[in-house]
Every structure is written in structure tokens, then in C-alpha cells.
Amino acid sequence: ILNVEQSPQSLHVQEGDSTNFTCSFPSSNFYALHWYRWETAKSPEALFVMTLNGDEKKKGRISATLNTKEGYSYLYIKGSQPEDSATYLCASGSSNTGKLIFGQGTTLQVKP
Amino acid sequence: DTEVTQTPKHLVMGMTNKKSLKCEQHMGHRAMYWYKQKAKKPPELMFVYSYEKLSINESVPSRFSPECPNSSLLNLHLHALQPEDSALYLCASSQGKGWDTGELFFGEGSRLTVL
Description:
The structure holds two protein chains of two kinds. Chain A has strands at about 5, 10-15, 20-25, 30-40, 45-50, 55-60, 60-65, 70-75, 85-95, 100, 105-110. By secondary structure, chain A is mainly β. In chain A, about 35% of the residues are buried. By secondary structure, chain B is an all-beta fold. In chain B, about 0% of the residues lie in helices and about 55% in strands. Chain B has no helices and eleven strands. In chain B, β4 and β5 form a beta hairpin.
């Protein structure tokens, strides 16, 4: 993998459903993985920054895991609520380029 | 104050105009970034300033000229743009010398339309 790729591109779920998204990134020269939530007409806000293989982080109903050896991260939302509707961006930082590169995002719509 | 403020929110300009986008933060962050985002695409890195020095230029055309007058301000000067430069321009900042020391704090973006 040369770029940062996210799947699915979009997701529609019912309130109360649990959901998860995937972020795939180059595993070589990996340094850090960032997750951001971007609500319409607002600024992207950081959810998690992870650096170590096997890292798991949690904030309320949202959690994330990191596998640096195979180059993927999962973001989980438990019991989705309408206010979780947003675009979720991941970004991977490389130690050899010094750059933080974003994926195209997963847009989540939670229906009441 | 945990805000990054971008002005203007919307800008319409002709191909012969000269305009500037401004970004301001008062969190004491020493790294500042410009990203460009077109619809349905990932934000693309344009420039990074670290301690007020340009550290990354992603081969951006010279019609985009960044400036960091001090540690709180970041400008993007625009001249002779093309319609394909129409996009959302996001400014961000982070502590220390860059993203490797923590999360990015973003502004809401400046929506640029080039006619």
C-alpha cells in the first residue's frame, strides 16, 4: 500500500447500531496514526493519535486499534447516535518523509 | 483558547486577482500547515512551517505563496490562480515541531472559488 485508504467510503446505519471502519496505510517507516472526526461546517477534531503496534484507545463509545505490522487501524463506534454523523478521517505519518498523509474519509450517517 | 481561526470563510476571485488566506492560532503551537481539499478527496498537504521556517513544500505551484510572519500567523498568498485551484483550504497547527508530537488542530477552512 502506497497511500492511505479508508473503507467503506460511506455508511448509513440506524441509531443504536454498532459500526466500524478501516484505515490502511503503508507499514514501512510508520510513525503515527491519527483519527479525526469532521462534522459538516465545522473543523476536523482529533479523536486519537496512536504510535505503538497493538495500541487500543477509547473515548466514550468510540475506540480504535492499531496494527503497524500489517498497516491497518480500525475505528469502532458502539451504539451509534445521530450526533455521530460525520466524516471520519485517518492520517498516517511516515518517519522517512516527515509527512502526515490523509485518507479520503468514511462518511457516516446515523438515522434516528 | 484551542481555536484555529481562518479568514475569510469564503473567497471568490478572478484568475488575475491577488488575494490572501489568513490563519491564526494562540495555543503556542510551533508547527503550522496548509492542506487543500477537493470534494470527495483526501486533504492534500501543501506546506508545513516548523518554528516559522518552511520545512515542507509539496511541489506546490508558485501561484501559491505561503508566509509565516510570526509563530501565531500563517498566510497563503494567491495570485494568477486557475479554476482548478477552487477547493477548501484548511489550516492546522500542532505542538512542537510537527505532527509527530501530537494531534493537529484545524480551522474551519476557507472555501475558494476561482472564476
